[in-house]
Queue: 2 jobs
Job 1
Amino acid sequence: MEAASPSRTALRVAMRRAAHQIYDAHPLVFPDPLAVPILGAEYLPEVERTRFKLHKPHSVALRAHLVARSRYAEDLLARAVANGVSQYVLLGAGLDTFAYRNPFPQLHVFEVDHPATQQWKRDLLATNGIPIPSSLTYVPVDFEHQQLATQLAAAGFDTTRPAFFAWLGVVPYLTHAAFHSTLALIASCPSGSGVVMDYGQPRSALPYLEQLAHDSLASRVQLAGEPFQLFFTPPEMAAELSAFRALEDLGSGELNTRYFTGRSDNLKLMGSAGRIVSARL
Ligand SMILES: C[S@@+](CC[C@H](N)C(=O)[O-])C[C@H]1O[C@@H](n2cnc3c(N)ncnc32)[C@H](O)[C@@H]1O
């Protein structure tokens, strides 16, 4: 991504989480009382202006993927906290709002993000009157050019205590080298630590119609200055996670069954491109 500009994809996914709060039927899959306020007067009007587009089938399916991954991450986080985890690291936090509605008094949150995106988020929070809790530490890091371990340690991250990492909507934008070094850091954490991330399957692994949908999304993120560059098949991802146990790799079918059954609207995932995986140490 461009070094000096905030992530445009972070804004796009935050708009889709806000659209979920406004347009989708209740019960919501991912109720987030701060998803709308964080966009504020600057960005909320665009969610309203693009209402028509947000109801197109591909847009609905993409929104379903985004809310499912956030819901799944926070479900797993709650389980990790119940098992004693007290550090939550959001890698590529974007406009994620968990830290500002953190219900766990003992949980410290580290928001790691590209410096330009993080500064933009902090400005938005200030403009929109969302207070920064003392349980949150910002860690500005460019995964491609800086050592995450060094920056996290300097920010007070305790490598001797288990941590839960969420890496949502980030992996496809990284080089393999940056992915590897970050995963190695997570794998070096103590037993009880865990990670959740989503990833995309390579174009060649997709049926023809999904290849067209892939091309359309890939050209949109390329135009946003954040081209996709890293894909995995499920066996390749399992090999990357060989240091971990309790792997759970979910496709659309499993996520639909878990989170979208019995809905009165059409919100559900489609296709096989996007997957969400979690693992523990
Ligand atoms: C699609 S957004 C997802 C944001 C957030 N996780 C969410 O789900 O809303 C991608 C995020 O990855 C971050 N990112 C991409 N490349 C990065 C890099 N090289 N170093 C640090 N952050 C990066 C962007 O700044 C952005 O916040």
Job 2
Amino acid sequence: MVGKGGAGKSVISGTMARVLARDGHRVLALDSDLLPGLSLSLGAAPDPVEPPLREAAEKDENGRWQLRKGIGPVRAVRRYAIDAPDGIRLLQAGKTPREGLEPIMGSLNAYYRVIHRLSGARAFEDWAFVGDLPAGPRHIAFDWAPYADVFVAVVTPSAQSALTARRVARIARMREGARAVFVANRVAGAEDVRHVEKLVGERMLGAVPADEAVAHAERLGVAPIDHAPGSPAMVEIERLVTALAEV
Ligand SMILES: Nc1ncnc2c1ncn2[C@@H]1O[C@H](COP(=O)(O)OP(=O)(O)OP(=O)(O)O)[C@@H](O)[C@H]1O
Ligand SMILES: [Mg+2]
């Protein structure tokens, strides 16, 4: 899930992960945002201060971070991913602590190495990976979602959001075999969807309505799918999961 800040990446990725898990998929949710978001929309426990993945990293003789000996992607997920509702496993790069990035450098490095080996691991062949990326194009450009077959660019009805979505989709498509689709979020109606499509210059695979229940869930600190499972936004995200499977 990619797009501008506040576009709805975490709400949509967290809810999609829950829908996939309820449909019987094994789901690995991947959170490389250094700011909170995904754990809340998944309904998982609050982000730990110390990222568990820190344990998977060690420094080599040159002082460079690497994965500890004997830790591959399967073991890393088994040991250092967190349980989330519906059987989802959540692997996190870590959240920026008050002191800055230094305390989570080991975890960030371990995360980057693990995600680069996910697709090659047979144990994950039948898993669904759902990733929530930080806002903007930088993380895609630096290959922080190598596991992704399809990038979902989330776009709200604004020129800035549309420009960012176009940019990130373009960068995502540079990797051979990677596809990118667009999903409109917080739309007020069909007119809004047409407006977004005009701004982006492409069709939307889905259009998630502006939904007071989603905003309310956020204020309560609960996952939107738990707070208002039948709300219009949740119903559309369910439909989106089906539509994505056909992309
Ligand atoms: N369809 C919607 N209707 C109403 N509110 C929404 C909707 N989608 C998202 N929101 C609200 O908008 C805010 C931003 O959503 P979210 O956190 O998912 O965005 P994000 O793209 O992950 O942001 P960030 O770039 O900060 O990670 C949240 O408060 C969320 O509850
Ligand atoms: Mg987010």
